[in-house]
Amino acid sequence: MSTQDDQTHAVSEQETEGPAAPIILFFIIGFAASLVLGWGIFPKLLYSQKHQPINFNHALHVEEVDDGCESCHYFREDGSFSGIPNLESCMECHEDVIGVSEEEEKFVAEFVVPEREVSWLVYSRQPDCVYFSHAPHVIAGKMACVECHGHIGESDHARVYEENRFTGYSRDIWGKNIAGLAKHPWERMKMDDCSKCHVRENVNQGSVQTQKGGCFVCHK
Amino acid sequence: MKIDRRSFLALAVGGAAGTALTPLPWKLTDDSSIWSQNWPWTPVPEKGENSYAFTSCTLCPGGCGLMVRMVGERAVKIEGLEGHPVNDGGVCVLGLSGLQLLYGSTRVKTPLKRVGKRGQGHWKKISWEAALAEVAEKLGQLRDDNQSHTVACITGSKHGTIPALFKRFMTVYGSPNVMTTPSVGDTLEMALQVMHGVEAQAGYDVENADYILSFGSGLIEGWGAPVRMFRANSAWRENGTKVVQVEPRLSNTAAKSDQWIPINPGTEAALAMGIAHVMMKESLVNNDFVESYTEGYTGWKKMVLDEYAPEKVASITGIDKMVIVKVAREFAGAGKPLALCGRGNGETPGSLAEAMAVHTVNALVGNINQEGGVVAVPIPEYAAWPETGLDNTAQIGMAKDRVDGAGSDAFPLAASLLNRFAAGAMSAKDYPVNALLVSGTNPVYSTPGANDFKKAVEKIPFVVSFSSYMDETAMQADLILPNHVYLERYEDIPVMAGLQKPMVELTQPVVFPMHDTKNAGDAIIELSNAMGGSIGDAFPWESYEACLEETLGDKWDVLSEDGLWEDEAFQPAGWGEAFATASGKFEFMNPDMDLMPSYVPLNLEGNASTFPLLLMPFDSMRLASGFISDPPFVIKAVEDTILKGKDACVEVNPATAKSLGLADGKPATLSTPKGEARVRIYHYHGIMPGVVAIPRGLGHSADDKYMAGKGVNFNELIGPVEDRASGLDMAWGVRAKLAKA
Ligand code: SF4
């Protein structure tokens, strides 16, 4: 009885107000649009593109120096890592223009002469809540630079620096791949990547200072 | 085709499902956690190579050596200097937070001229030239009117080239009115002057003593050189030195001592006399010293035997008679016993008779100028320059009586009586005070009777502050000529904090001056040159640094190299040579001055029926109560039993609180004859019934939002009580009343 009534009612509604859009169509539109947004537009919005103040040529420098990476990125006497050289270190060679490149000319004019530090953008800088020390990795762990930093030493120009608009850190930490997939360590350096290696190599599962495990290794 | 509500729902569901399959939500969650753990506005230290700069701390008289960790030009952390004779790597919480005094918000950044009313805080920036010219003009005018003596000057410390330059300026200008910030050191110096006949500071060989009897000294609460005392305290624990703390309140020092003897407030001298009584009666004294090297012993002994029998002392002090006898025996029986005085952190001078009483306890066991004893340490007097002659005006001015009465017939021993300044300036009995210069101290906050002091300053037509910070005194100034802070300047610091050897330290700049400030030494040299004539002649130096270098002579090389000059060869004088009194001996009594070690009860302000309680202050390492006030890090570290919200807590014994109906944690009104304040009740079993205590160092009205408006300034609740003998303030407390708010 009641079935009969409902059908009659439904038919009459269709007749008076035209055909209803298939719900599935709207579902698909929403679904597809969000996929485009999430995979395509979002990464473009999230990161701003910045350029290094000087288009640095690693390959050229590595050729010229004696000690490879360590010529400029060295350990200080107190064991701390110098990271990106300061102006003083650069000036050991570049007090005046010594080559023919335009970038060097620009470097000398804009930074060396006015004695202004170069505000390099650091691709691999971890957030401030992370305690990272090079010494245990490079000196004690005998790891080569390339293991984490990849083949940066062979590059002949400075890549675009993509800055996360939200956090202010480099895209390199999360990785170029927005899904977070990486083949090599230098393609991504998130917490899981650190711990994966620490677990695999069975090193420092606990903090040196507090002997506590887990978080305290890197978050002091 | 009709688009209806269901279509939108479908779109949204589709969108949500799709979004969940993109990295967007996961990435944003991750980013927001990174962002919230690294707020971009949170300051983080500079990155770069670390280096160390070396200097000395001036935030208290303790004289700690510092190493400041630097990244480039930026100071990022203050640490104690390893191997330094005072602190050997240690540093206190105030010293540690010094960078906030350098980079923080309380600094005066350029010379300022008042534009609004006094205390309103409306200022105009002016140049150094204009500021110095204005001071020179105003002071010049007063001098032309033969009013040079109506100018007064207050400096922080007594010794070193900066106070000496101010004093020299005042002398050639023609005013005797130079005052310094008082402390128990002044009282002890007087005690040595009377009993030893020498000008010296009292040094204590605490490291080598094996029995410590402290009459209320906050041994780990800022007394002496604080970090040195922490170290000594740890050493005492390790080597079994017994520490006996006599104090009405269970302070940190009392809590860490081997024996705490609660005593009726202000009766410590009676206990010292009672102990002397027992030692003399039982022949426990050092006969060699007493018989051969002292004067007036017999008469004094008779007085003590008559007047300070243990029963009587027990009734004054509230300490059991047997405890008194036992402590006296233990003290006399120890190998190297040492008695210490100066309540709390030693910022209040206390009674001279009391300092002498405690000193006598030491003398009776013969530990004067001995290992583990009290040492008369000569005051380094290098900051003395050749006289350059006073002109007529200066001579007339210098011949006038001082506003504070120091050095007068009534107070011949005193060199400065800041506690008497406000009354003198208010009454203008002989003459008014027409101008005031203040350097290195904040007397509007730190002088007992602070409200009266402020009123006196308000009356002075021209006030110049040399403060680096916008403190309470600077707020009352007409002109502020800001000094560099200690991390930006040179200054010599003769350390006068109970060390057993003469020591001078050098504060050296670790960073370039951040603002348009000037070393007070340079300011005074330039001011003198601007005034010219015999005043300018007295300041021949090109700069303060040149003056310092010349003045320190041989010491400069050592100081600029090591930051520290110690008289290595110093040996305390033997008993035969130590005393320069009329008798050439240690004098128990001075009949000329009617002075002797004794118990002089304090005439407490207020009457007992209106104000039934006794209010006393206490000190904490986490509360700076002198020239410097707590930087934000330190005030954060103050316990909530001391400061709760914006209220200072008043410690009340639960029995007293019950009788007054005051519940724990509730607000109350604390009143004394001097003032009234809102406080919060803290039930504390460690304080005697009938006695209440509040912390010193709170209740600032100036400074920044971190410090101002928190708690109450104890100095506004108490007035100075003059010690008849010394003229210094001997008040240790005041009568008070507590009522529900
Ligand atoms: S004890 Fe005094 S001198 Fe030493 S670090 Fe603390 S404030 Fe500075």
List the helices and strands and how they pair.
The complex is a heterodimer of chains A (220) and B (741).
Chain A: H1 2-17, H2 23-46, E1 47-50, H3 58-64, H4 87-94, H5 102-112, H6 134-140, H7 145-149, E2 161-164, H8 171-174, H9 191-200
Antiparallel strand pairs in A: 1-2
Chain B: H1 5-20, H2 24-37, E1 50-56, E2 65-71, E3 74-80, H3 93-96, H4 99-103, E4 112-114, E5 123-125, H5 128-144, E6 151-155, H6 161-173, E7 178-180, H7 184-195, E8 200-204, E9 211-217, H8 226-239, E10 242-246, H9 252-256, E11 259-261, H10 268-281, H11 287-293, E12 294-295, H12 297-307, H13 310-317, H14 321-333, E13 337-344, H15 352-364, E14 374-378, H16 392-398, H17 421-427, E15 435-439, H18 443-446, H19 450-459, E16 462-465, H20 472-475, E17 479-480, E18 491-494, E19 503-507, H21 520-531, H22 533-537, H23 544-552, H24 554-562, E20 564-566, H25 575-578, E21 586-587, E22 613-618, H26 632-636, E23 643-644, E24 647-652, H27 654-660, E25 667-672, E26 675-683, E27 691-695, E28 734-740
Parallel strand pairs in B: 6-7, 6-15, 9-10, 9-13, 10-11, 12-21, 15-16, 16-17, 22-27, 24-26
Antiparallel strand pairs in B: 1-2, 2-3, 4-5, 4-17, 8-14, 18-19, 19-20, 22-28, 23-24, 24-27, 25-26, 25-28
Describe the protein in words.
The complex is a heterodimer of chains A (220) and B (741). The N terminus of chain A is likely disordered. The termini of chain A are far apart. Chain A is mainly α. Chain A is 42% helix and 4% strand. Chain B folds into four domains: 158 residues, ADC-like domains (N-terminal domain of TfIIb), CATH 2.20.25.90; 178 residues, Rossmann fold, CATH 3.40.50; 194 residues, Dimethylsulfoxide Reductase, domain 2 (3-Layer(aba) Sandwich); 128 residues, Barwin-like endoglucanases (Beta Barrel). Chain B contains 27 helices and 28 strands. In chain B, the strands form seven sheets. A seven-stranded mixed β-sheet of chain B has the order 5-4-17-16-15-6-7, with helices on one face. At the A-B interface, helix 2 of A face helix 1 and helix 2 of B. The site of iron/sulfur cluster (SF4) has 13 residues of chain B, from helix 3 and helix 8.
